[in-house]
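Kindly review these tokens for lecture notes.

. . .
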Amino acid sequence: MHDDEKNAYLLGFASTQQKLPEREEALPIDPDRAQIPLTGLMVDAGTDLSGTMAADRRVRILPLTIQWPGRSLLDKGTAEIRTVSRQLSHERIRSAEVSAPSVEALSYRMHPHLALNFDRLLLLATHPALVDASRSVDQMLKDHHDEITHLRRERHLRPDYALHVIPTGSLLSGPALQARLLLQSAEMRMGDVPGLLNLAKSLADRTEVWLAPGHPGDVAFTLGRLEHPDLSPWVEACSPRLTQIMHRYPVLSCKSGRFGLESRTNKWKAAATRVIETAAQAIEQGTLAAPAIQLSFDGSIRELRDWPEMQALKKVAAAHEVKLHVTHMSLGGRVWASAQSLSLALIRKAAD
């Protein structure tokens, strides 16, 4: 068995070995929920969520289907899947496709307790040009509406259950940073759903994601298959036909939902350095709207932290009291961004 085939087999095995339960479990019901609805946050498995956030009792991960020729996997966003997936070659990653889970698979794993453990669910949706998984959640809740209403009444909960889909206009580390800031907000603590929705929209409007793709040709191939016009700037920037030999590596961005090309360089390390320096400049120039940034990396985080550019960023962040979060890239994120990639997310102040 070739190494890549072996790793693909192990990936399937890892999907059954997660520490998180296979199905949503019933949680104790707080009587105060009659006055203050309990709000949960959901992100899809393509979000570069940290292990700490994934374990937060208010957070749920929406699985995504990852398909290869002759093989498919339901990615639940677990650490086990991420660990094994990092051993897959970029050719194997390139051949994968990401799609929404079936309603049946979602119902098996999340119904009925998802609609009993929370009263309001905010789903932070990855940019729809990449995947539109929110429809599966919405359809699951519609299919079981009468049963959900009955079960909630039985447990003395408000019969109405609300799903709010929030278009993040982002990907990779972007929705993860938005989720982190929402969880830490006063609106979340107070159960202020209208306030949360307003905050979520504000964050989405100001989120920037910067990307140094490890294999630009893979990005052009993978995103080109989706045939979505919004992705054209990235597809064209990474196209082998247009990429010059001396300027092979692009620095890509997605700002407020708009994909773009920032610059080109002849080495990946130079592109990654540009991404890191973008974070440092935003901190030094005081243009951050929130005192937190997030990097996600498909590689050794220990080695990344030793880069001089990362050491400099760490010092700048500490001096300005900005939280610096570094996570591994998700499996779905690796498919979209290509293997050995580095992404950055920050929230920029509105222009004067």
About this structure: The chain is about 45% helix and 20% strand. The longest strand covers residues 258-265. Residues 216 and 238 are 5 Å apart (CA to CA). The radius of gyration is 20 Å.
